[in-house]
Amino acid sequence: MPRDTITPADEQQIMAAIQEAETNTSGEIRVHIESNCEGDVLDRATEVFAELNMHHTKLRNGVLFYVALEDHQFAVLGDAGINAIVPDHFWEDITAEVIKHFKQKKYAAGLAKGVLMAGEQLKAHFPYNERGDINELSDDISFGD
């Protein structure tokens, strides 16, 4: 079970990173953690992206961090608005940083670092708009089985 690995303190660390990253951008970041990933990790991340209604942001600027702990699978997935403008190596750089921490079993630290990295890119391309910028997606971590 993911909640056996991710402690409440870990959860707070990850959610704090999401909130910090989102203070400077209209982009939206979610983290989903489950035990196992059936099939291809990007296919599963795409399913979760849809289940969490992440494609419903106004600017199509949602980012999902997907983790399957027991299967050692990770993916970071951006919506169409982000993919159209971020550099080619953007997702690979974040993935490499997160996995570096995961290999040391520092899951919360890795996710927090990746979230903040994503937030920096989102800030550059989707700056926070004081007028009318709302938090379109929950900052809570979603958990699967």
TrEMBL record:
Protein name per its UniProtKB record: TLP18.3, Psb32 and MOLO-1 founding protein of phosphatase
Organism name: Pontibacter ummariensis
TPM domain: residues covered: 4-119
Xref: InterPro entries: TPM_dom
Pfam families: TPM_phosphatase
Coiled-coil annotated spans: none
